[in-house]
Amino acid sequence: MYLALARKYRPQKFADLIGQPHITQTLQNAISMNKLYPGLIFSGMKGVGKTSAARILSKALNCEKGPATEPCNECAFCTEITEDKSPDYIEIDGASNNGVEEVRSLKERVKYKPLKNRFRIVVIDEVHMLSNSAWNALLKTIEEPPEHTYFIMATTDFHKIPATIVSRCQHFEFKRIPLEVIKTLLREICIKENITITDYSLYLIAKSSEGGLRDAKKILDQAIALSNGDVDDQSVIDILGVIDEEIFIELTRDIFSKNRQGIIEKIHTLAERGMDLRFFYNEYLKFFRDLLVLKSLGESEKLHNLNPENIPVLKDILKNVRDIELLRYFNAAKDLEMSIKNTENPRIILEYLFLKLSYFPSLLSIEELIEKTRSGDIAPLSVPRVMDIPPLGDDASTASMFTENDGFTGTREDKPDIVTHLLEILKKEKPRLAANLASASVSMTDNKMVIKFPPTMEFAYRNTEEHIDEIKDLFMRTTKQNVEINTFIDKAEADAEEARLKQIENDPKITGLAGRLQSKMISVKKI
């Protein structure tokens, strides 16, 4: 019978345990000092060596030459544990033996001395699947185990283990195995098996395993079988159902070069091939996240999952793109996640997304626009003049609006114009002054600025009056022009407000209510 690579190349000693040096060193020190805890918890994702470590530890404790920091793997005790023939090495599945009766049976077995070995080792895999009653039955045995027994509990969900159990055990957390480490190990296996494989195939297998070495070996086994020997890239792509990174690269190049025809053609090709476009979108988000890491961090090799062979090409594509711009692209793509997920036609949303991104290279940020205005690269903006709109609640018939083309002007409600730019700069340089103007209505005609404050904002009006020169200086620095500024409190609004309050005070319904309550109205105020 064929022996799977995951079993054939299973670690047999601590030195073979890949990617967990912090755990192997601690266990070896505990053995040599005779300070090994009777209850151990091994937690971590699947396929990182939890049960393999439990077997190695069992052999090291029971080895004919031990307890030793490394098992000899030659004596009868080591061989029996390796071949699952030892009566004193008990490995059970917590998912299928999760009842209280199974735990009681286990407690009866461990009461007696080992039949042959120095110690009895009980390994409970997926221990988090035990029921509450099973945990309660196991609790006392974990706390005070027989002198000859060690309990090792392996789990992928450490947080599900009761705190009463955790407090009585020593916890070892197994880490994900780095992609490069998995690639190196798979390459060594292929050499031993006389299998030819490309670096890209190794990269794809290691990436898809997401840090689990057992899964990587399983995928390699499948690729060898599909390829009938030597492994080719297409076989690995077919097995994994992954998208070739080259597609992402070409699509990204089309976005930055504003090649919209290329974008539509590529998405059309994906749809014709039967590609799951929702899956494609999610994978592209991961790819773009990796681009952000590549662009933002100098030493980023261990922090992204990009194919190392494509790094020079990607760096060339990104050389003229700033970090903040990439973040803007990513944010725009992420915003459509729910739309892609819920739409019946993801192709339309996907086309819209990539076409939208292709317009981003032509956009200027407000900071860039101001800088170009200051340097004289572009002329100050010229927009139609808009008369100020009365505050909400005023009679709409009194509002008037007209446009002229003989100068630039605007209010804070307009689209970005020179007034908006001034307020944005004020927020950074003079936040208190900007807060004053936020309560006012600001308008411009030619080089004349009018700042109108409501009657309730007299303090803001006076404070602004004291800093008029600062606003003029900012205007000069931004537009290279002088400005005349007029600030005032809207007396007409104040008079109208006073008349409204007087009307409320004399309202028969209000005065009648005061009479029925035998009370006196002191004042009426606007809140």
Attribute tags:
527 residues, alpha/beta, 5-stranded parallel β-sheet, elongated
Roughly what percent helix? Answer: 40-55%
**Largest sheet geometry:** 5 strands, parallel
Helix-strand makeup class: alpha/beta
| Strand-residue proportion | 5-15%
Number of helices: 25
Write down how many β-strands occur, each being a DSSP E stretch of 2 or more residues.
8
Measure the end-to-end span. 86 Å
Widest sheet: strand ordering: 2-3-4-1-5
Overall residue-averaged pLDDT value:
81
Radius of gyration: 37 Å
Query: For this entry, what is the oligomeric state of its chains?
Result: single chain
Unreliable stretches covering 5 or more consecutive residues: 381-416
The best one-word shape is elongated
Walk me through the structure.
The longest helix is centred in the middle third of the chain and has 20 residues, at 277-296. It is elongated, with a radius of gyration of 37 Å. The protein has helices spanning 5-8, 21-33, 50-62, 76-82, 100-110, 132-143, 163-166, 179-192, 199-209, 213-227, 233-240, 245-256, 260-272, 277-296, 311-318, 323-334, 337-342, 346-359, 366-375, 418-429, 431-438, 458-466, 468-479, 491-505, 508-516; strands at residues 39-43, 89-93, 120-125, 149-155, 170-173, 441-445, 448-453, 484-489. It contains 25 helices and eight strands. The chain is of the alpha/beta class. It starts with a helix and ends in an 11-residue tail after the last helix. The strands form two sheets. Strands 2-3-4-1-5 form a five-stranded parallel sheet, covered by helices on one side. α5 links the parallel β2 (89-93) and β3 (120-125). Mean pLDDT is 81; it is low at 381-416.
